[in-house]
Amino acid sequence: MLISMTGFGKAAGTIEGNDISVELRSVNSRYLEIFVAVPKFLNFLEDTCKKNIREHIQRGNIHCFINIAAGNNTLANYTVNMPLLRNYIETVRTIARKTGIEPQVTMQDLLTQPELLALEESRIDPDILSNEMTGILDKAIAGLLEMEKNEGRYIKQIFIERLQSTENHLTSIIQVQKENISTHISQMRERVGKLLEDQPGELFLNQEIVQMADKLDISEEVDRFKSHIVQFHAYLDMEETVGKRLNFLLQEMNREVTTMGNKASNSEISQHVVEIKNEIETIREQVQNIQ
User: Fold this and answer.
1) Closest CA to 251 of 284, 221, 223, 282
2) Which residues, listed in sequence order, are joined to residue 80 by a DSSP beta bridge?
3) Of 34, 26, 50, 10, nearest to 130 (Cα)?
4) Strands laid side by side in the 60-70 sheet
């Protein structure tokens, strides 16, 4: 089963009165890259989340967003540094006495002084939060994987259609090639006859014909290309991740069809080669989204 690297999953739950939501977004990447965004005072959840994601996903650029709304203020609270606040007010009054400027301290002035407020971290047991968070994360991962599987089924259908197109062009190449070698032999005999006053010896001419026929022969490339198509279809039905293998197989297919075009020395075959390369490139673009 093909699994895409593009997907979205979301889940929510409640942990000791606190509303938790988890969002997962995935895009394609050569490797598995995981980025977790959590409130600063819950950074201890990052490693747990990454470990859990790695157990389910092999490739992709994964962004995990965890949002927490503390319904009963159990996650974090702001406290005021009262000694520092009193010192701040007294300092303002001293400046006012010495300068004659009327002191006007607003709430905004106080809030812009980060030292006056301190954030008390969560009072929830970290083990409890971590364990229960895993359950919510699992639901988000399940949603992400379901979307990726649906996208994988869609991409698989694209692969099948494009592969069928390459097979059709390959069939045309085989048909053209049946007449291609004999046409080149006839042209060679005609050119040699025009260039030489005396007819060349039959043995010499036959040797040249054999060498030319060998250079024009693309049967091995055609057989390997067919084998690659069969292997590609086999990969499409495998349960494990196959993105890297599909990409390698496309490189081999492109190499074989390029050799066909170079060896055949036929304009009609060259046209089919161009079309096959175009289909391979379309498939390659989609393979970049497969795990």
Assistant:
1) 284
2) 117
3) 50
4) 7-15, 18-27, 60-70, 32-37
**How far apart are alpha carbons 141 and 137 in whole angstroms?**
6
- Using alpha carbons, select from 276, 285, 237 the residue that is nearest to residue 253: 276
What tens digit of pLDDT does each residue of 107-125 get?
Answer: 887 777 778 877 665 566 7
- What pLDDT, in 10s, does the model give residues 209-237? 566 666 777 888 999 999 999 999 999 98
Integer Cα distance of 43 and 188 in angstroms: 77
Of the listed ranges 117-121, 130-134, 228-232, 240-244, the least confidently predicted one is 117-121
